[in-house]
Write a structure and sequence with these properties.
The protein is α/β, with parallel strands linked by helices. It has one domain: 3-Layer(aba) Sandwich (Collagenase (Catalytic Domain)). Helices cover about 20% and strands about 25% of the residues. The protein has four helices and twelve strands; from the N terminus they run βββββαββββββαααβ. The strands form three sheets. Strands 1, 2, 3, 5, 6, 9, 10 and 11 form an eight-stranded mixed β-sheet that branches. The chain has a two-stranded parallel ribbon with strand order 4-12. It has a two-stranded antiparallel ribbon with strand order 7-8. β10 and β11 form a beta hairpin. α1 crosses α3. The longest helix is centred in the middle third of the chain and has 22 residues. The N terminus and C terminus are likely disordered. The structure holds zinc ion.
Length: about 240
């Protein structure tokens, strides 16, 4: 689902990258295949798109204004932990850019800073949303994430969006929260769902907090070499 193209920069819109938290499912046949691209079945031209491994880190910011201060602090720690897991797996570097108030547009699946400030390139925007205010989230879909902008010519993701249920964050155990964040950040990095119930990228998130070889192979296959300097500044409004 595409919402616009500007100078080869593609706004992706929401992909089928939701997560269900629910009853255990029967384990699928053991699979050692790498987790697939999130674009498989959506846009074959973008299959394999991933983030570039540049010296400058990918930044992330979060809106935790719907959470109490303790929960907010804990969730930021869990996010930092989840980014660290993916960093070790992929070689990508991530840096926390701070707390930001954001507005969520459900139709385009994008988060925008309320200050009006434009998001930097190579950035992941994250927000915790009260379930009752958004149709995107409910009692079983407690997180959703997707790349937001992709350089089509070089299949490089340059922006991603992740939203989480504020209600779930308050109630979940540390392990449940970590499992959810780890899974959703996998989507932000370009991974789709794995059929193997043992993988972090399986669509039903339970309490898996260790990336498997297949999750790691999946993300490694998506990382592209850095072409910083060739990117032109673009706006997408
Ligand atoms: Zn998912």
């Amino acid at each position: 689902m595409h919402t616009g193209v500007v100078k080869g920069l593609l706004a992706v819109g929401v992909l089928a990258a939701l997560v269900l938290v629910g009853a255990p499912t029967a384990s699928a046949a053991d699979s050692t295949g790498a987790a697939p691209s999130i674009f498989a079945g959506h846009d074959e031209d973008l299959v394999g798109a991933g983030w570039a491994a540049c010296p400058s880190p990918i930044t992330w910011s979060v809106d935790v204004s719907s959470l109490d201060s303790t929960t907010a602090q804990v969730q930021i720690q869990h996010l930092a932990w989840a980014f660290d897991q993916w960093s070790r797996a992929s070689g990508l570097e991530f840096a926390f850019a701070g707390r930001t108030r954001m507005s969520f547009d459900e139709r385009s699946f994008t988060l925008r800073a309320r200050s009006g400030e434009r998001a930097p390139e190579r950035h992941i925007a994250i927000s915790y949303l009260p379930q009752r205010e958004y149709r995107t989230l409910n009692d079983t879909i407690v997180g959703m994430a997707s790349p937001s902008l992709v350089w089509r010519d070089r299949r490089e993701i340059t922006s991603a969006t992740a939203v989480f249920s504020r209600d779930y964050a308050v109630d979940a155990s540390s392990r449940e929260s970590r499992a959810l964040l780890l899974h959703e950040l996998g989507h932000a990095l370009g991974l789709g769902h794995s059929e193997d119930a043992g993988h972090v990228m399986h669509e039903i998130v339970q309490t898996r907090t260790s990336l498997t070889a297949a999750d790691i192979a999946g993300v490694q296959s998506l990382v592209t070499s850095c072409s910083a300097g060739t990117a032109t500044t673009t706006t997408l409004s």
